[in-house]
Known about the structure:
Blueprint: E1 2-8, H1 16-28, E2 36-43, E3 56-62, H2 65-71, H3 75-78
Antiparallel strand pairs: 1-3, 2-3
Amino acid sequence: MIRHIVLVKFKAELDSASIEAALNAVVALKDKIEGIIAVSVGDNNSPENLEKGFRHGFVVDFVDSAARDAYLPHPEHAK
Length: 79
C-alpha cells in the first residue's frame, strides 16, 4: 500500500461551499481511478496554529506504487 498525503491552501476568497465541493471531488476519485483503496479529507483542527494557511488536507491510499503512478497523470486527477 502507498499513502499519498496532500495539504491544501485554498484561496482566501473561496467560500466554504466551494471548498467542500473541491474536497468532495477528491473523495469521488476513488470511484473513477482504479487502484485507489481509500480517500480521506479533513480540516486542520490543531490548536497550535502552525498550518501557515494549509487548513485542509487529504490522504489517498493506493494498492501499490503503480496505481499511484497511474493516478498522477490521470485526467480526473488533473481536474
